[in-house]
Amino acid sequence: AIPSAKMVWLLLVLLPCALAGSFDANRMRLIKHVNPAGNVSRSNFLFRGSLPVNANHTFAKAEMVAQATILAKAANLTLPSSFYIVILSLLDPLEIEDAIVEINYFKEHPTEGQYNNWLTVGDLVPPESLSGAKREALAKNLSQWQLDKLPAKMAEIDKLLDQAYPTGNALFYLHCEAGMDRTGEMSGSYYMHSLNYTFAHALAVDNSIETRSIEQASQNAFQWYCYYLYYTTQPWRNCSLP
Known about the structure:
The protein is built from nine helices and five strands, in the order αββαβαβαααβααα.
């Protein structure tokens, strides 16, 4: 049987993602700090980064927390001494060897946190390759066709950050393998959604993580999210590539 277009798309996107990685503190960034439900005695931190797994295939909790402490201090914040870890993994099924390290860690230490997986693959079609009318129609209906469901994911991150957790504080860690492409897609979208960054600013932050630019499919996806915002609620946005 001939594979469907969607299956070919997934294979093309997932195969390059299956390269093994390991934790790189230099790729970790603080995205947002909130006091859930306005309670100043509680703190939730959202970070982005690379795979939180060491070269010896162990969960890089100590290394992740050490860098989180440094980043919080740089933002004039104090990382609490105790917190619940919420992993937001964007890994795909071909990366199960890395995912299982995190999954097993939280199975063995269930009171320390939880592992969540959001398969993220990007979009093959750049928004600017389409006519204005076609782009507008697709952008307005992004939630209906985009595999990564970025509008829903943005709302879900907001909801997660505003919850109270067992220790009173939470450390959210959003990651893929390199902390650059799929992480850039999700983070770039959140920069626009929550921090009101322009598309150009969000893209610049993504591209500052490494010495290369964000992968095309990931860039396409969060540019589509920018157009979604533009055509639905934020007509002031400029979603063109800088």
